[in-house]
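Do me a favour: review this protein, sequence plus structure tokens, and tell me how the chain folds. Record follows.
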Amino acid sequence: MKRRTITYMALPVIWCLVSGQITLGSVLLGLIFGVVVVAPFSELYRLDEVVHPTGDWISKIPKKLMYFYVLIKEIIKANIVVAKIVIKPKIDIKPGIIAVPIRTKTNIGITGIANTITLTPGTLTVDISDDKSVLYVHSIDATDPQGVRDSIRDDLEHYVLEAFE
């Protein structure tokens, strides 16, 4: 089956769950919304590729769970660091933008690592290089740029690579 077909079939179901009504009108409206939302982005996410129902997505479920565990752990750690910065009587931070080379090559992997960085308090993905090999990350404390790079590469990107590529 093609991913586009699977996506078009799933969106009316999701729409019915969101709207709270399972009627023919809700299903049709969900299908229309699905086409309007999915069609412009189908090139980005390669929705025309053939998907095998027993593909390796099942084998990646434990890796995705591990990614979400690490993500939540990193968000909690970053919240504590940001809270300590805010609570200090004199805020002594040196924010800056750091170039972070990335290993991910697929759009889904790049989106995953960029969103993961942005979800972590104190960091924000600002831009990506034209060749998609470097993310530009704003950090609330850029006094140790190599430490930020290593943290992103070792703590976040590693799990994104395993879960989404």
